[in-house]
Amino acid sequence: MRGSSNSTRTVLTVLVFAVVSYAAVVAVMYFAQRSLLFPGATSGGTGVAASVPWAQRVTIPTPDGEQLAALHVKAADGRPTFLFFPGNGDNIADYGFLGDALAGRGFGLLALSYRGYPGSTGSSSETGLLVDGLAAFDWLAANAASSPVVILGRSLGTGVAVNTAAERNATALVLVSAYDSVMAVAAGTYPYLPVTTLIRDPFRSDLRIARVSESKLFIHGDLDGSIPLSAGKKLFAAAPEPKQFSVQKGLGHNDIWAPAVVDEIMAFADQATGSVTAH
């Protein structure tokens, strides 16, 4: 009897330890989730987006009182401007290759540093980033009204891009490494956690894409280990026409910006806007 009692006590101890350990993991992940989702954000918005030779730094105010840093390249007369929403670990100062490529064809660019990211005030959240996206679009409407807007989102920024396209009248939408929702991707990455219950920033692009009537280009690497190709295809399936999907063979998440991809984006923008390439 004594042996049986000790065995029961041991089993209970193990179970209690397992439950407490799991609860601790859940708690840590819950409170750390925004640092994981927004790794490029800085504490309190400290730091300044670097001065770059390829763009002019501008400041965009938001309706809720934040000041956002952005890098702007003016479009040639009558040419489109790309409104760019970067990935969660990106610094917009690193996108000179994109700014130069676009400028070489007469395209403009407005690359946004989200709230909490270098040069911008505030702290990052889904609600905040969606406000930032609309503020950036409205800034372009006020300051580059003659230039058609092509919204371009990468990775996390595709969620901001989809919402902006759903709420504003852009000319076209380009999504690079898109997801159906951050919630779904996180649930696949952490199957042992109750993600759908705990997530604070679900970024449900799958619920917003139906309101995007603009012409859409989806680009995704078939070796993407961060956002599975299947996630991009799910969002594509939910999107209304017109739309097209471009699978990039041999490319992953962080090497997606191959020169051929940039060329494809520019060709799509020309087609969608009916503009003539400037040389």
SSE inventory with pairings:
Blueprint: H1 2-37, E1 56-61, E2 67-73, E3 81-85, H2 96-104, E4 108-112, H3 126-143, E5 149-154, H4 157-167, E6 172-176, H5 182-189, H6 195-198, H7 205-208, E7 215-221, H8 229-238, E8 243-248, H9 259-273
Parallel strand pairs: 3-4, 3-5, 5-6, 6-7, 7-8
Antiparallel strand pairs: 1-2, 2-4
Helix pairs in contact: 3-4
Describe this structure in words.
This protein has 279 residues and is an alpha/beta fold. It is built from nine helices and eight strands. Strand 5, helix 4 and strand 6 form a beta-alpha-beta unit. Helix 3 crosses helix 4.
Summarize the structure.
By secondary structure, the chain is of the alpha/beta class. It contains nine helices and eight strands. An eight-stranded mixed sheet has the order 1-2-4-3-5-6-7-8, sandwiched between helices.
